[in-house]
């Protein structure tokens, strides 16, 4: 499958526009899924911890494919899009590992440092841990939003190091913020003020939680009260993660500069009307033979709720992720 083969996305008539797509997809969930995964702890070299939630279908066996799914900013293994896609992959006989980044979900009290857009090493550790649990199986990686940036950065670093994980067959990044500086500027627009404040209010309590769990965790300055995500990154994320400044964090962590070095078959999916991620950052990417890029005219940020569709349901994004994975991991989604 190539980006040119994708069926067109037609938004639901009641959900036209990037904001409607984004907000509907975020706040309206599908049916609840009973948790039945097995948890695996991934110990990182610096002492922090990732958690993999292992959803293994009853018909999965050695040599069958697996996929690691990675959530966006403020999310976790239970994010609606992660749960939906894991459920659909399980129906195809694919074993999925839903990742909780540092301090997220089940790992809320297990890490003294925050996850951020540049933690590509964590993605590498997560995939290698999943691969060890599935010896001899082909695997794929799917990163959404912030994780998509982390994933692309890791893939480009692998190419520059001439390192190819033996069983990594493919990857997909959906709505990745590949230019963090541009994304930061986009959040400052008046029509994006809701998202900016929402993410900031979500992240600030997590800092106190880390301090409560780890007395030596990085602490912000006294009277710290960031009002925007940019302020949060400047006063906490960057210094806590060893960057010299906000600009240093954004410059070193943005994945656009790594795309030309990607050697793993990779699909990037984004929307022209994504309110959070300027489409111009994708239009400036170099053409790379291993990377397929599709810019849908509509879809918002992780939305893509369709009107008329030939897919089994209206979640157009889910099926494009599954189609790309199926084309490289040798499973069939046709019976869904």
Question: Can you characterise this structure?
Answer:
The chain has 336 residues and is an alpha/beta fold. It has a single domain, classed as 3-Layer(aba) Sandwich (Rossmann fold). The protein is 35% helix and 15% strand. The chain contains 10 helices and 8 strands. Strand 7, helix 9 and strand 8 form a beta-alpha-beta unit. The chain is globular, with a radius of gyration of 19 Å.
How far apart are the first and last residues' alpha carbons, in Å? Answer: 18 Å
Uncertain runs: none
Rg calculated over all Cα atoms: 19 Å
Structural class: alpha/beta
Per CATH, what is the topology?
Answer: Rossmann fold
Count every helix, treating DSSP H or I runs of 4 or more residues as helices. 10
The CATH homologous superfamily is named Alpha/Beta hydrolase fold, catalytic domain
Q: Mind describing the biggest β-sheet?
A: 8 strands, mixed
Q: How large a portion of the residues is in β-strands, by DSSP E?
A: 5-15%
CATH architecture: 3-Layer(aba) Sandwich
Helix content: 25-40%
Mass-distribution shape = globular
Number of E-type strands: 8
**How many domains in all?**
1
List keywords for this structure.
single chain, 336 residues, alpha/beta, eight-stranded mixed β-sheet, 15% strand
Short account of what is shown:
By secondary structure, this protein is of the alpha/beta class.
Give the secondary structure arrangement, pairings included.
Blueprint: H1 18-27, E1 38-43, E2 49-55, E3 66-70, H2 80-91, E4 95-100, H3 120-133, E5 139-144, H4 146-160, E6 168-174, H5 180-187, H6 193-213, H7 229-240, H8 246-253, E7 266-271, H9 280-283, E8 291-296, H10 316-329
Parallel strand pairs: 3-4, 3-5, 5-6, 6-7, 7-8
Antiparallel strand pairs: 1-2, 2-4
Helix pairs in contact: 2-10, 3-4, 7-8
